[in-house]
Amino acid sequence: MSVEEAGRTLGSLHIVIVGRDEAWLEGLWVQPSARGRGVARRLVEEGERIAQGYGVTIVRTAVPSRDYAAMAVAEGMGFRRLAEASVVLAEIQAGPIDLPYEAQVVPARLSDVAAFVALLEASPTMAAWRRLVPLGWRFRQLVPELIRGLIKDDRVLRSGERVEGVVVFAAHGEAAVVSLLDGPRAHRQALYGAVAERARAEGARRIALFAPDAEVWKGIRGVFVPHPWCPDGLVVVEKRLGRSRTH
User: Do the beta carbons of residue 178 and residue 143 sit within 8 Å?
Assistant: First the structure.
């Protein structure tokens, strides 16, 4: 959606319905010459109205930690800080990739859903992220239906006989995204290595890794650097809406 004036686009915003009652706002952009005129507020308000029409009761978005202007707009419109994440990049190395033998990695199965959810519900990662799972730059509520869909799409690997470690990932051209990596240290290395092997075979050259803090990639072999879009991390903000009576 966009705001126009005299045939000229002043700003735009994308609204993505990500669940039964969840929506994600992304790509907010305002023409530099139009800033300070309330364009961003108009876009967000219209985005909320459209989302409500589809039964959405929660809208979220992510803001770079040091983007104080964007954070001020969000908080001024009733959004509250919910969670924080670090995003780092690493080049996929040439040659053999470390895969610890004590942590066998296999694709997750639908029968693993309950164990997968139980592991994450008890993990510090999900506690830090308020039960939200990042899928790329969008964070979604952790629910069994979401996990089943990810497993069907072959986006989940597990390690250990009883699901001791898990990784959620996706490959996008030259880059792969590790949205979630959890488990004991050796398992994290094995899972990361398995993703790196698969991504490299598909032509990817680097991996973007989302984590609540630096503890996740400690012990993983690779040189990690901050993502240029959010070098100091990002903040997920959330706003609860009333239900629309029009749908």
Answer: no
